[in-house]
């Protein structure tokens, strides 16, 4: 049991995390904000049904996750090479680059930082996972819920949570190992350094890259450890509050639109 | 009737029993993991090629009544078309193929809880009126079964240990 005051306090405490989680699931700011609102309304209406078997935070994430699943269930997964497809679309879209440059030069949240793009990239690529795996990966690796709590959030067994988590991690590790030039010299994607060259032309890219532990340790750590470092970067950033938030959200809006069109054609 | 134990080292061994009109290959292994984890691995077809070195491609959903297509290392050029006959969560699953009474196959997976571990068993019975003519050209399933069971055990135990 919990009182409305307790609910309001917990909601205020975890609202930011919930919103960033929902953004990373839906890749759409409006959807994330709507679901946060709806989560509060549902929780507030049904507070009497909260039995205290889980924490209020877990309960709120459970409501938010269910609402997100309702929205996403019928939608197709993004392809693993989402960044290639979106890059091609961006190259043919002068207006998009103009808007990005405008944000870069006028917004307080318009800095381009490679680590922000690494997090952005992970957001896009995890959309290639089956929905349950996507949820579990974010809940565990980014929002650091325990397997038992995630089982409550997604209303499944701890065993299934472990399975989803393992398969999601394995898939992501393989994708980034093949694609990401930051951790593998044979990687095909250099998008973060290319964009850094566009937005920060005076910066020394190797100096910037050396600030990122995942890049520094690329040759001495395992694929699994490098993926841990990748998720650590995402964990350290709030997509709504970071120094690059406006720039990255604009980029995400672009990718979301491009993917909708791409998947519709398929 | 002939019974043959397939050669192998430490991994579980398969057994093949042949009669004039049938051949049945079976294997059983103890997996130190929750049956739900083993079941999840067995019933998520799109994930098969990641952990199961005997499967090279998989199409379809493993749901009762659904048809699935898979390719195996046993005969890489051939696509096996199967139907999911029955599923009893965390316990048993059956797949069928072919057309009885001429030639058909029945693959059975069973899981048995044993404390915190699971006894995994898999068998495939093939046979029918045409079997005697085709028998010599059908490769042995032993090696493939042993690898399947070994991969499943490895993967399930890794997942079980995960925090």
Task: Explain what the structure shows.
The complex is a heterodimer of chains A (266) and B (163). By secondary structure, chain A is mainly alpha-helical. Chain A folds into two domains: 74 residues, Rna Polymerase Sigma Factor, Chain: A (Orthogonal Bundle); 190 residues, no CATH class. In chain A, helix 4 crosses helix 14. Chain A is globular. The mean pLDDT of chain A is 95. Chain B is α+β, with helices and mostly antiparallel strands and 163 residues long. Chain B has a single domain, classed as Alpha-D-Glucose-1,6-Bisphosphate, Chain A, domain 4 (2-Layer Sandwich), CATH 3.30.530. Chain B is 23% helix and 42% strand. In chain B, strands 1-2-3-9-8-7-6-5-4 form a nine-stranded antiparallel sheet, covered by helices on one side. In chain B, helix 1 packs across helix 4. At the A-B interface, helix 9 of A face helix 1 and helix 4 of B.
> What portion of residues of chain B is helical?
10-25%
The ordered string of helix (H) and strand (E) elements of chain B is EEEHHEEEEEEHH
**Main beta sheet of chain A: strand number and arrangement?**
none
Number of helices of chain A: 14
Oligomer: heterodimer
Tags for this model:
heterodimer, A: 266 residues, mainly alpha, Rna Polymerase Sigma Factor, Chain: A, 2 domains, 14 helices, 70% helix, B: 163 residues, alpha+beta, Alpha-D-Glucose-1,6-Bisphosphate, Chain A, domain 4, 9-stranded antiparallel sheet, 4 helices, 9 strands
Brief rundown of the structure:
The complex is a heterodimer of chains A (266) and B (163). Chain A is mainly alpha-helical and 266 residues long.
């Amino acid at each position: 049991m919990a009182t409305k005051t307790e609910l309001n306090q917990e909601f205020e405490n975890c609202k930011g995390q919930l919103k960033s989680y929902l953004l990373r699931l839906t890749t759409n700011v409006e959807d994330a904000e709507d679901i946060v609102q709806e989560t509060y309304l549902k929780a507030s209406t049904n507070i009497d049904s909260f039995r205290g078997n889980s924490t209020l935070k877990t309960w709120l994430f459970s409501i938010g996750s269910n609402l997100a699943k309702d929205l996403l269930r019928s939608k197709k997964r993004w392809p693993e090479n989402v960044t290639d497809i979106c890059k091609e679309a961006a190259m043919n879209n002068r207006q998009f680059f103009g808007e990005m440059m405008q944000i870069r030069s006028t917004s307080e949240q318009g800095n381009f930082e490679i680590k922000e793009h690494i997090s952005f990239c992970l957001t896009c690529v995890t959309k290639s996972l089956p929905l349950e795996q996507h949820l579990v990966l974010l809940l565990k690796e980014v929002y650091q819920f325990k397997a038992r709590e995630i089982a409550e959030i997604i209303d499944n067994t701890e065993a299934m949570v472990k399975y989803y988590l393992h398969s999601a991690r394995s898939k992501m590790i393989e994708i980034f190992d093949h694609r990401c030039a930051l951790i593998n010299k044979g990687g095909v994607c250099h998008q973060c350094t290319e964009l850094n060259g566009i937005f920060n032309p005076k910066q020394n890219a190797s100096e910037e890259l050396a600030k990122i532990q995942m890049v520094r340790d690329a040759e001495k750590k395992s694929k699994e450890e490098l993926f841990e470092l990748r998720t650590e970067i995402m964990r350290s950033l709030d997509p709504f509050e970071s120094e690059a938030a406006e720039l990255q959200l604009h980029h995400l809006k672009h990718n979301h639109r491009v993917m909708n069109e791409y998947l519709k054609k398929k | 009737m002939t019974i043959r134990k397939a050669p192998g080292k430490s991994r579980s061994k398969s057994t093949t029993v042949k009669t004039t009109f049938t051949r049945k290959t079976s294997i059983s292994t103890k997996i130190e993991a929750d049956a739900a984890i083993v079941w999840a691995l067995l019933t998520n077809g799109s994930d098969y090629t990641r952990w199961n070195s005997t499967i090279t491609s998989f199409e379809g959903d493993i749901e009762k009544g659904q048809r699935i297509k898979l390719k195996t290392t046993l005969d890489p050029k051939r696509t096996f078309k199967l139907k999911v006959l029955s599923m009893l969560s965390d316990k048993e699953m059956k797949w069928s193929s072919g057309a009885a009474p001429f030639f058909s196959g029945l693959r059975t997976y069973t899981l048995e809880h044993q404390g915190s571990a699971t006894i995994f068993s898999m068998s495939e019975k093939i046979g029918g009126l045409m079997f005697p003519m085709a028998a010599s050209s059908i490769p042995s399933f032993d090696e493939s079964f042993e690898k399947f069971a070994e991969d499943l055990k490895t993967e399930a135990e890794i997942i079980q240990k995960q925090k």
